[in-house]
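User: Could you go from structure to sequence for me? I need the amino acid at each position, not a summary. Structure tokens:
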């Protein structure tokens, strides 16, 4: 089917192409009657604007790239919702890519988005991302960039984060305030900054409350998932019989831990208290319900898009833009696991 053009609408109505174009854009110097005629004819012919022509004229693709480690993760799905809602309001399409926590795949995805000439890129780094030359390439090409959640402090760009160290400190202090004295930490991988900061927050809380740090109580959960939680809990029960509190890197690890304890008849929180992190919906659905740190994924998504759009607008106007770091608030939610 042949594409309908502005010229065809103009010829049908006996007016100029310029008048048709202005009418469709609601220019004030076109009468209401003419606008109505043009829009009616455009609808009858099923006219669609030529996106490529518009993009060439405005030098915008109206598409954005989003790279996240996992789509199925409740936190990241909340981030996506926040980004998509804001993007739709401003007429942007978002290309969503999942790195599967894989550094090599993440690099390919960055190259893909660059080749697609997206207006900007939003990214939460994979846990295995050890070097950042592919991220720096985005900056070198002057493509607007915002990092969120899992970031690199070595990249000079805007970032939307929480204070993971402070949040982990609060979570660990919550266990201490409940009377726990022997607290294990089921942490994430060694590389991501948020995993590092949550570990450091846990360690600082112990030190500030006179509890000796014991490295044997640290269990690394590489995939940060339910199975990791189960494995860590099983290993903990083999290694120690005196632990009375556990701070986990995510709610999903905590759920796996609680499942093992329930199976073995270990009472939570009577014998051991458990703290999660993120406030997934599943944290309220398990028994006992999970105490956790509320991590505002939806708000993080909204702020990530808004910050990216600010940089895009500044670039279009050729005005200076200074990268900013926005730190969103968190708080502890007490439920039955503590």
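Assistant: Here is the amino acid at each position, in order:
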């Amino acid at each position: 089917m042949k594409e309908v053009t502005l010229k065809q609408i103009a010829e049908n109505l006996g007016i100029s192409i310029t008048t048709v174009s202005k009418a469709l854009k609601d220019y004030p110097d076109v009468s209401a009657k003419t606008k109505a005629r043009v829009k009616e004819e455009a609808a009858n012919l099923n006219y669609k604007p030529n996106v490529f022509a518009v993009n060439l004229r405005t030098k915008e693709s109206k598409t954005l790239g989003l790279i996240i480690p996992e789509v199925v993760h409740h936190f990241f799905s909340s981030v996506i919702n926040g980004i998509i809602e804001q993007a739709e309001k401003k007429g942007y399409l978002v290309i969503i890519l999942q790195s599967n926590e894989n550094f090599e795949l993440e690099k390919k995805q960055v190259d893909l988005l660059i080749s697609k000439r997206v207006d900007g890129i939003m990214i939460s780094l994979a846990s295995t991302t050890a070097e950042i030359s592919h991220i720096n390439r985005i900056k070198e090409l002057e493509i607007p960039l915002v990092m969120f959640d899992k970031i690199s402090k070595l990249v000079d760009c805007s970032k939307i984060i929480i204070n993971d160290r402070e949040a982990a400190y609060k979570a660990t202090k919550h266990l201490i305030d409940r009377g726990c004295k022997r607290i294990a930490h089921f942490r994430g991988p060694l590389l991501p900054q948020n995993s590092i900061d949550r570990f450091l927050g846990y360690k600082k809380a112990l030190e500030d409350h006179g509890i000796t740090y014991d490295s044997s109580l640290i269990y690394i959960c590489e995939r940060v998932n339910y199975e990791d939680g189960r494995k860590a809990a099983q290993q903990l029960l083999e290694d120690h019989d005196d632990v009375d509190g556990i701070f986990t890197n995510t709610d999903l690890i905590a759920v796996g831990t609680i499942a093992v304890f329930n199976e073995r008849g270990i009472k939570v929180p009577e014998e051991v208290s458990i703290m999660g992190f993120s406030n997934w919906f599943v944290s309220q659905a398990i028994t006992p319900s999970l105490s956790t740190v509320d991590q505002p994924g939806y708000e993080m998504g909204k702020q990530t898009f808004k910050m990216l759009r600010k940089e895009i607008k500044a670039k279009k106007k050729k005005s200076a833009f200074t990268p900013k770091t926005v730190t969103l608030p968190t708080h502890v939610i007490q439920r039955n696991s503590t």
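One structural detail worth keeping in mind: Residues 14 and 38 are 11 Å apart (CA to CA).
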